[in-house]
Amino acid sequence: MVLVVVFGYVTKRVIQTRSWQVAGELVHRVETDEKIVALTFDDGPTDADADAVLDVLEDRGVPATFYVNGQDVEPNASTMRRIIDDGHQIGNHTWSHRPMIFISPSDVADEIESTDRAIRATGYDKPLTFRPPHGKKLLTLPLYLAEHDRLTVTWDVAYEDWSGKPQSTEDLVDATVEQTRPGSIILLHPWFGRTGTQEAIGPVIDQLQAQGYRFVTVSELIG
């Protein structure tokens, strides 16, 4: 019984940790004294939310990194085109956003490779980093990523509340800005009508820039 409990605890820790995986390279932040950070967005994209996200970045001249789901790429082609034209970075966030744990190696390959193909079909030709849905990974996913020399990118700043409790845009901004430090990777989910998060993007950028921070893509941050 004790061994079962210990095994379950260790497995849960491996699945949930944002700073380590069993194989391959993972980055959740970068050690630096320079006040640079990467702003990243997960899921989607969705054409209906494109202006609310991309106009804010364009107005401020800020590059971001978009981890997209393959199933949403072609149906939202105009948003993908603008992300590319505006000079942002794109990453792979799986095809369907299913949890990438307790699944077969062939399912891992399908989720990642189909998304790669969808992204490449848009004309994007830069290196593709990978982010697992919810940051969860166990064994088959890291082994695949290591075998294919793919970098896993997680985050160290993420303060959206998914518990169902009320969260104001102001609370999200304050928590995000307070916890950001040099080398941070910030995560937000602005798609699918998440107006509270959309409205937080500008203030987060403005307050961090006022503190002397500069925004770069994930690849620029990693160097």
Helices and strands, with pairings:
Blueprint: H1 2-16, E1 26-27, E2 36-42, H2 50-60, E3 65-68, H3 70-73, H4 77-85, E4 89-92, H5 105-120, H6 140-147, E5 152-153, H7 169-179, E6 185-188, H8 195-210, E7 214-216, H9 218-222
Parallel strand pairs: 1-5, 2-3, 2-6, 2-7, 3-4
Describe the 3D structure:
By secondary structure, the protein is an alpha/beta fold. The protein is globular. It has a single domain (2-222), classed as TIM Barrel, CATH 3.20.20.370. Helix content is 43%, strand content 12%. It is built from nine helices and seven strands; from the N terminus they run αββαβααβααβαβαβα.
Largest sheet data: 5 strands, parallel
The proportion of strand residues reads 5-15%
| Helix amount | 40-55%
The CATH class is Alpha Beta
Q: Report the mean per-residue pLDDT as an integer.
A: 93
Structural class comes to alpha/beta
Number of helices: 9
Q: If you consult CATH, what is the topology?
A: TIM Barrel
The CATH fourth-level homologous superfamily: Glycoside hydrolase/deacetylase
Label the CATH architecture: Alpha-Beta Barrel
Poorly predicted regions are 2-10
* SSE sequence, one letter per element: HEEHEHHEHHEHEHEH
- What is the CA–CA distance across the termini? 47 Å
Shape label: globular
Number of strands: 7
Number of domains: 1
Instruction: Write down the Rg.
Output: 17 Å
